[in-house]
Amino acid sequence: MRIGIVCYPTFGGSGVLATELGKALADKGHQVHFITYQQPVRLNEFNANIFYHEVRVATYPLFDYAPYETVLSSTMVDVIMNNRLDLLHVHYAIPHASAAYMAKKIVERQGRKIPVITTLHGTDITLVGRDKTFAPVVAFSINESDAITAVSQNLRDETYHIFDIKKEIQVIYNFVDVTRFRKKPIDAFRKVIAPNGEKILLHASNFRAIKRVEDVVRIFAEVNKRIRSKLLFVGDGPERPAAENLCRDLNLFDDMRFVGKQEQMEEILAVADLFVLPSEYESFGLAALEAMAAGVPVVSTDVGGLPEINVNGITGYLDKVGDIGSMSHHAIEILQNESTLKTFKDNAAEHAKKFDIHNIVPQYEALYNKFL
Ligand code: GMT
Fold this sequence. Notes:
about 15% strand, alpha/beta, Rossmann fold
């Protein structure tokens, strides 16, 4: 098949998932055309079946706002026609599904039919969708898609709840390449972070307010009182200064590191003992799944799609948003003795297999096949 993939190319989960999907499809012999405004971060290897088409938005003094969506639709038309694409798979309703609708109508006039599959990832529905200014376009472009998928049952339910959607939304869970994440820890790296055998807690996100990164610091402060430990922050974003200030105020700075945006998550996860995700909402929580695949238990909130991946008391714990006391208590419970920690680690790794790439990618292929 010749498949066009449209996504945000950044570190966000939707871009990561779309890129990993494209790579997996290319490995299976499909021809994959990424249409994005930047090279996707995880598109870091050469594959003869992968093509990258950059959306270049020129700025003119006449425009106060660059017409990104128009250029995106035009690029889609160009790629569909010149590469004889069989279908377009767009990740995120805004603006990708609406731009795809426009492209579909244009190529139709040229005698070409192109099915559009839209995958909903979360923020596009729960935040952007609630904003009344976006709502009509979101609802319209979802309804006009030939197929719609959501990354969790929770997101599917939320979408029906927020919008008037007439079509079936299929749940296809996000996935992880379990084999890739089963790395042996690099001793030298672990020693740099935790020279005296301390336990390593990890948080990775885009540091948006919804991630509640200050809760991570407060949970760590409690854990650190009882268990010799270190905290690793991966990623960057608007709330990072607040987290750094809180670390200084709580006198924890020597026990934590901010390593910024990182591509090789599997190397970092390999040295971690516990992943902390106290988000206010996650449609899925791909970062938590990647942690589990690396054998790292997860202490998270019980919101959105998180209960669909993190099994309470087995792969980690689920707590109420903002309940620092309970999350700290559970983190200590997991970390306090080696045999409990090992059980949680093994359970996390085992449960992640349910979401292995080999189980999920065929579900997308089956969906594509319905349109060919
Ligand atoms: O979480 C973010 O801020 C990034 C966002 C994105 O659009 O990339 O992530 C969303 O999609 C991911 C992949 O499907 C999910 O794992 C995240 O849970 C979801 N984020 C939210 O729902 C807040």
